[in-house]
Amino acid sequence: MRTTLELRDLVRFYPKRGNRTLVDRGLLVSYTGEDRTCTLLRLDGTLVTKKVDDIAVVDRSSIHVGQMVGSASDVGGQIGVVTGFTTDLHLVQLNERGGATKNQILGVSPAGLRRVRALSLGDYVLSGSWLGRVVAVPLDVDVLFHDGAVCRTNVAFYPGERVTAKDGSATVFKGSRWLSGRWKPEHEIGTVANVEMAGVFVYWIASAQHGTKQQLVQESAPPPYQQPDSLAYLCSAPDCSWRLGDRCFLLSDEQQHISSLQAHSALLPTMTVANSNTTVDVLWQDGTRQYGARSTSLSPYDFIMEHDFFPGQCCVVDNAPGHTIDGVAGDGVGAANGSTRRVGVVRSLNSKDQTVHVSWFKAASTRPDGEASGLEVECDDTMSAYDLGRDPDHSVLHGDVVVRVLSSVIESTPAAQQIPHAKSASADLPWVGRVVDLNDGHVQVKWSDGSTSLVIPHEISVANKEHYTQLYAEMYGWEWDEEEEDDDDVGAPPEFDAANVVNGPHDPADARNIEGGDCSVNELDGPAATTQNVEAPTLVSTVSHEDPNVGGAVMEVGLADPVERSDASVDDSNDDSVDDVVIKAKDAIGDDGPFKFPNFDVLKSPPDHHYLDTADQGSSGGKEWVKTVQKEWKILQDNLSETIYVRAFEDHIDLLRVAMVGASGTPYQDGLFFFDLQLPLSYPNVPPQVYYHSFGNRLNPNLYASGTVCLSLLNTFDGEGTEVWVPGTSSLLQVVVSLQALVLNDQPYYNEANYEHLVGTPQGHRHALPYNENAFLLTLRTMLHLLRRPPRGFEGFIRDHFRRRGRYILATCEAYLQGCVPADHGRMELSCSTGLRIALDNVLPRLRAAFTQLGDEGSYQCTASSHQHPTNILV
Question: What is the pTM assigned to this prediction?
């Protein structure tokens, strides 16, 4: 088995000469796939470049509780979550030249150590009834000179280090505060005598009174700057692991009982981590537990899909027809009013079949004394992973920091009728803790006072999980430089400028390029760079990880009397008998003859257009702007393909509505997708605004459920060259063609930001196939939405499209249920998992009924029963 390479791995290499010693190890800080070389940070703080074939991974101490991992020997297999780990450290003392001395200690537990900087960036801290994250740690560093003089600066160094001015002058020390003696020109080289935290900057994320409600927390939170002795340490940042080169103090038994924030570094010898050995406990998706696995046998997994569930996860909600999530039916249509969502707990997941074993809970019951009787299982069931969803407010995992929820919040939860009444935070109960295990629908929490108890998910709320750099940016409006990012480095706010003092074995973290590196997951047998020769269309864009409109309402306008309009000169908004008229554009030719719906037309603006309230109507754009818009209309009219339909509006020439048909061979095949566009008055210097009619579904990385379209061409995501909007070159035609061909493509999973390097890898394959399956299902559900709530101006088009293509859509569904493929199916890559078939069994009857109402009686049928699930096929 060849272990994959991960940033921050501890690796061993062999010098050409001499014996193997501790200096033959390094921390992987970068990796270049083209020439298969990597850069390593050694114990003495120097960097060395080695060939991949000349190194071996010896430890992976960066793994932490709550992290998702896969097996290094089966990177395309199931995923697990880390439930615990143990790390033994080898400590040494370094001499002035950065070499190890004879003072070495083996097998040291981190519990007996204190970092030189007692608080690390991202750590969770408490101040009374407030919970916060450390985002900056300014330091007081005392430098001792040969004549006994001592100056104090805020440079990030360790006790015992020899430091000098970077440019050879000693003026950098001149402006420092001198604790003993005074500055002299000969004060060029000194030794760091002591390092203490001068203060701590904290981003407050929760309180006992307000829970995790950020607005209320920020309005009444303590000041960000705090003295360390005013804080209590809760737990470390998730990724704050012990690594090669970390400096620490070895505490005595007595000192271990003292707060680590109170121990003075001047009284303790400085030790350095020279080696580590980490074993890991993992809970796998199939419900099995593994204890004491070598860290090198696991690979961190950063690419988790929404349908990757883990045993013990609670508040799993049934997304199938007949149930609701926050009042919205699982498939968006047809659920009876008053139907409630089901709450359960995951027992196991079969990652190949995409099926989940779930235990559904009964409604809450109480004993005669009025106390809640606890969670009771009503039944067990095997569900499709695509019919399940997580409740984001109450879904917890191992390692999460949580706070108790106030009783008023608990009582207002959607599932309050199905769970026992929970205990609220009170003076006699600890209010903040960390999840240590999940058990039969309950969450085991270790509280801040050291006690442990079981709670139900609705009793707690997960505290802020953003990276500390994001929290820092919110506080100071500052963009973090990823190349300088480091878990242990000093993150001083702008008023704490560090002096440029470097020499000798300085902080190894200063040279790390952990989060901002060129690779994140690289295989020894197939580095990411080897996939770069896979050409992607220049216009394709990737979706960002943050949706700027999360939580925004999705416009859904119901129509009692659908209206079709084609003649722009006649106001027929109240006439539902107007037939489609062919004008200005070529017919779209389908399987059953001409389909008389023009690809381009000019109508009156519809009342349900997303940008109608902010439309400029073109009245203030000026003649040149109007000419530009009309020129764009002409380009669209003459060049649209027969599967893209555009409506412009004579009374709002800055608005357009676009419909497009999903291409054959993609999971969006035969589906309809609608976009509303607005041309700003500054157009074409800036791109149009685009809104996607999602109906609450996220069926593509670039298309958010909120309607946001994330695309480089729209300047809603990063890009360069022709990927971004170029005034005078880019056009509306380019936008609509890109949406159809490059966004709604046959492998949408790789549209996700930074996922392109997974093309051709087992990790990518593991996710791309189920992503296609889910996109296919969401496309079917979108069809039901469109038939029930068609966008204005396209009512007849939608009916006629599904009347004509309904039989083929149903044939495709039946083909996947039965393993037979219709002749015109194309070669859409779906894995035909059992989970897909179960989900199709749920949606197909509703789809068939909807198409039958349109008058298409020629639905394709397979002779076999739809409930027979043959072995998975790939067509």
Answer: 0.76
Q: Quick one: CA torsion of 396, 402, 405, 409, rounded to 10 degrees?
A: -50
User: How far, in whole angstroms, is CA 605 from its chain's centroid?
Assistant: 38
The answer to whether 577 and 561 are in contact (CB under 8 A) is: no
Contact 41, 511 (CB under 8 A): yes
Q: Give all strands (DSSP E) within 73-183, no chain letters.
A: 74-94, 100-108, 113-115, 124-127, 130-136, 139-144, 150-153, 162-164, 177-180
Catalytic residue ranges:
710
pLDDT digits (tens, 9 = 90+) for 183-227: 888 888 888 888 888 899 999 999 998 998 888 988 899 999 999
Domains, in order of start, for the chain:
100-276+484-513 (no CATH), 314-395+401-462 (no CATH), 588-853 (3.10.110.10)
What region does 524 belong to: left with phi over 0, alpha with psi -120 to 50, or beta?
Answer: alpha
177-180 and 232-235 as β-strands: parallel, antiparallel, unpaired? Answer: unpaired
**755, 736 Cβ separation under 8 angstroms:** no
Calculate ∠ Cα 555-389-676, nearest 5°: 20
pLDDT digits (tens, 9 = 90+) for 113-146: 888 888 888 999 999 999 999 999 888 889 999 8
Looking at residue 788, the DSSP 8-state letter turns out to be: H
Please calculate the CA angle 24-29-35 and round it to the nearest 5 degrees: 85
Question: Are 150 and 126 in contact, with CB atoms under 8 Å apart?
Answer: no
Cβ contacts of 641 within 8 Å, gap of 6 or more: 599, 737, 740
First to last CA, the chain: 31
